[in-house]
Amino acid sequence: MALADLPFPEINACLNGSATLLLTAGFVLIKQKRIAAHRAVMLTTFTISVVFLISYLTGKFVRGLTMFDGEGGWRALYFTILISHTILAIVIVPLILRTLWLALKGDYIRHRAWAKWTFPLWYYVSVTGVIVYFMLFRWFPHHQA
C-alpha cells in the first residue's frame, strides 16, 4: 500500500478520539489520586498525540488540503470551530511539553498549576479535531484542493 493510499483522515480522527478518551481517564485517575495510573495514561496520551501530529502532517504533505463545501450557517460554524481548533492546536504544544516536563522532574505543584490550563485546552483541541473530521469527511461533501 502506498503512503498516499492510507486513510489519513480516519486514522487521525481515531487518534484524536483516543486522546480524548485517555485525557478523560487521566483526569478521573488524578482526581482519584491514582498517580501511577494517571502518569501511564498521560504518557500514552502524549505518545498518541505525537503520532497524530506526524500522521496529520504526513497526510497534508501527501494528499494536500481538503476543502469544506458546506454552506450557510454550517460553513460559519465549521470555520469558527476550525479556526479556534487550529490556533489552540498551536498554542497547546508548548503547554503540553512544559506540563509534561514539570511532572517528569517531580515539580508537582507547578505541574498542577500548568495542567489547569493545559488540560482543558488539550481536551478542546482533541474533541474539536474529531468534530472537524466529521464535518469535513462525513457530514458534508468535499473535494481536494
Gross morphology is globular
> What pattern of helices and strands is seen along the backbone?
HHEHHE
- Quote the beta fraction: under 5%
- Range of helix content: over 70%
State the end-to-end distance: 23 Å
Kindly provide the radius of gyration, computed on alpha-carbon positions and rounded to a whole number of angstroms. Answer: 17 Å
Q: Outline the biggest β-sheet.
A: 2 strands, antiparallel
Number of domains: 1
Flag low-confidence runs: none
Q: Tell me the total number of β-strands.
A: 2
Q: In words, what does this structure look like?
A:
- The chain is mostly helical and 145 residues long.
- The protein has one domain.
- It has helices at residues 8-31, 35-63, 72-104, 108-139; strands spanning 66-68, 142-144.
- Strands 1-2 form a two-stranded antiparallel ribbon.
- The chain is globular and about 45 Å long.
Question: What features would you highlight for this structure?
Answer:
mainly alpha; 4% strand; 145 residues
Task: Give a short summary of the structure.
By secondary structure, the chain is mainly α. It has one domain. It has helices spanning 8-31, 35-63, 72-104, 108-139; strands at residues 66-68, 142-144.
Helices and strands in order:
Layout: H1 8-31, H2 35-63, E1 66-68, H3 72-104, H4 108-139, E2 142-144
Antiparallel strand pairs: 1-2
